[in-house]
């Protein structure tokens, strides 16, 4: 095979970067984040994903991972679930600083500002690790230049699973580069299986009108609102149907419209 060898002895193909893990943080027994070195030549748009693997086999297993760090960050950050027995995450959850991560060189995705028409308010609807692409977008000044209001919604099973996003939103306010935009961001954390301030699924809360009563925001409408959706397959389907019912239309890179959907599945 064409390519360079890495320290594990397997060759790294020319379309793959071999990067070094800088930092790992576990939030719960199901969720962790990791940061890796960023290749000098690597460019991406906020909201895109890349294929990630480990150099533990001649033919490594690759999975799509949304890049959670902003485009200006010197490192790359990812937020991952740990799936017991999952072909990648079973091993990935054990990585530590200094280990090697493989990353295919091309990033792509539809959860990008280019796929949306201009609007007033941007909703970022997520469940679990679906918040990862939005972790990049809420740290990108362009998001706030394009939208006066950004509403980040994350629904998780319990409060501990909201920890990663909570930490991001809290530190954003003190960030010298992005802190000035913090007033434009609203975080609406929800849980379904543990008591918290906002309970239930986002679909239920928006469809019943309860979300709009609580926040004081007007119901989602195609004139003002744009929506990005990221979560499990069932969540994407239900949220897309809800957006259609609100009168929004699905957009793509070559045909921007009023909402976009993406799956960031890992197993
Ligand atoms: P629930 O507890 O009612 O299943 P998971 O960790 O399984 O990926 O789920 C993350 C969160 O997404 C949970 O709070 C879960 O609620 C919620 N969820 C699951 N399916 C949907 C869906 N179809 N629409 C909206 N939220 C969902």
TrEMBL record:
**Which keywords label this protein?**
FAD, Flavoprotein, NADP, Nucleotide-binding, Oxidoreductase
Q: Tell me its EC number(s), please.
A: 1.18.1.2
Give the record's family classification: Belongs to the ferredoxin--NADP reductase type 1 family.
Q: Which residues form the FAD-binding FR-type domain?
A: 14-114
A GO molecular-function annotation: nucleotide binding
Q: Which cofactor does it need?
A: FAD
> Which InterPro entries does the entry mention?
Cbr1-like_FAD-bd_dom, FAD-bd_FR_type, FNR_bac, FNR_nucleotide-bd, FNR_type-1, OxRdtase_FAD/NAD-bd, Riboflavin_synthase-like_b-brl
Q: What is this protein called?
A: ferredoxin--NADP(+) reductase
Note the Pfam families from the entry.
FAD_binding_6, NAD_binding_1
Q: Which Gene3D superfamilies match?
A: Nucleotide-binding domain of ferredoxin-NADP reductase (FNR) module, Translation factors
What biological processes does GO assign it?
Answer: cellular response to oxidative stress; heme catabolic process
* Reaction catalyzed: 2 reduced [2Fe-2S]-[ferredoxin] + NADP(+) + H(+) = 2 oxidized [2Fe-2S]-[ferredoxin] + NADPH
The enzyme class is: oxidoreductase
């Amino acid at each position: 095979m064409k390519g360079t060898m890495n320290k594990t002895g397997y060759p790294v193909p020319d379309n793959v970067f071999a990067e070094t893990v800088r930092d790992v943080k576990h939030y719960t027994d199901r969720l962790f984040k990791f940061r890796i070195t960023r290749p000098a030549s690597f460019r991406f748009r906020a909201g895109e994903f890349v294929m990630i693997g480990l150099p533990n086999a001649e033919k490594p297993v690759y999975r799509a991972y949304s890049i959670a760090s902003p485009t200006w960050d010197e490192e790359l950050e990812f937020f991952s679930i740990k799936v017991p027995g999952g072909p990648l995450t079973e091993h990935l959850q054990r990585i530590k600083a200094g280990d090697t991560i493989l990353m295919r060189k091309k990033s792509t995705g539809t959860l990008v500002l280019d796929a949306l028409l201009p609007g007033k308010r941007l909703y970022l609807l997520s469940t679990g690790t679906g918040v990862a692409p939005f972790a990049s977008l809420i740290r990108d000044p362009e998001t706030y230049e394009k939208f006066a209001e950004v509403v980040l919604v994350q629904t998780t099973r319990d409060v501990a699973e909201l920890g990663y996003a909570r930490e991001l939103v809290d530190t954003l306010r003190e960030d010298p580069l992005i802190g000035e935009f913090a007033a434009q961001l609203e975080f609406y954390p929800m849980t379904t299986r543990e008591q918290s301030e906002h309970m239930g699924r986002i679909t239920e809360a928006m469809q019943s009108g309860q979300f709009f009563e609580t926040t004081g925001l007007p119901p989602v409408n195609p004139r003002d609102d744009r929506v990005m959706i990221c979560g499990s397959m069932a969540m994407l389907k239900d949220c897309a149907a809800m957006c259609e019912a609100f009168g929004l239309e699905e957009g793509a890179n070559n045909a921007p419209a009023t909402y976009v959907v993406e799956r960031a599945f890992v197993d």
